[in-house]
Design brief:
Layout (H helix, E strand, L loop, with lengths): L13 H20 L3 H20 L22
Length: 78
């Protein structure tokens, strides 16, 4: 079971993926330094998992291209 779906278009920009990982790991540091080591470990684990899925193991999905509308070869005759 994947908790993060890296094929979603939200994760395509690099700054989004880096921001998510930095936020999780930064918050883990805050929790650990303020005397909540269990929350620090929990959020740190989420940060490590996010780093694995979004940075180290990330392969971008091919861009979806919209198919052109079907061409009507009739010359207005009906």
């Amino acid at each position: 079971m994947k908790m993060i779906d890296p094929s979603h278009k939200f994760y395509r920009p690099l700054y989004v993926r880096i921001g998510i990982v930095a936020l999780c790991l930064g918050w883990a540091i805050v929790e650990a330094t303020t005397g909540e080591p269990i929350w620090g470990v929990a959020v740190g684990g989420v940060g490590v998992y996010a780093a694995w899925m979004l940075l180290l193991n990330y392969t971008p999905a091919p861009e979806e291209t919209a198919a052109p509308p079907p061409r009507d070869d009739r010359d207005g005759e009906d």
